[in-house]
Design a protein that fits this description.
Elements (H helix, E strand, L loop, with lengths): L2 H13 L3 H8 E8 L8 E3 L1 H14 E9 L3 E3 L2 E12 L5 E12 L2 E8 L6
Helix pairs in contact: 1-2, 2-3
């Protein structure tokens, strides 16, 4: 898959709420995932660990009220999207989480992701 095809497929799956399928299908085994300091998991390596991180996030969600993802912007071996989630985390008031997501692609698989957002304090 080209970088554009990977980007389009990720957006398609996320818009359908199929985030776990996106990881299974599109991520490289040696993925590196970065989040801001102060988040639950600032650095995670390996597909299995990224899957566990994603499960852990959704386990903390009390209710997902809505989500949006932008069309991808592709440059060289990278693409970016913005994501917005309207959610209620367990034990917290409802809020909107907005982030910029940057992905690297090598050999048709996402091998790098970095999320830029302001962590919510519980």
């Amino acid at each position: 898959m080209t970088v554009q095809e990977v980007a389009n497929r990720l957006v398609e799956l996320c818009r359908q709420g199929q985030n776990m399928q996106a990881i299974e299908e599109l991520y490289a085994d040696d993925i590196v995932s970065l989040e801001p300091e102060g988040s639950q998991a600032p650095r995670v390596e390996g597909k299995a660990n990224v899957i566990e991180k994603e499960k852990g996030f959704f386990d903390m969600v009390e209710e997902m009220h809505g989500a949006e993802i932008s069309d991808p912007i592709v440059a060289s071996d990278f693409f970016s999207v913005t994501m917005s989630m309207d959610l209620t985390m367990k034990g917290m008031p409802r809020f909107t989480m907005e982030e910029v997501c940057v992905y690297g692609v090598k050999d048709g698989k996402i091998n790098f992701e970095q999320f830029f957002f302001t962590p919510q304090m519980g």
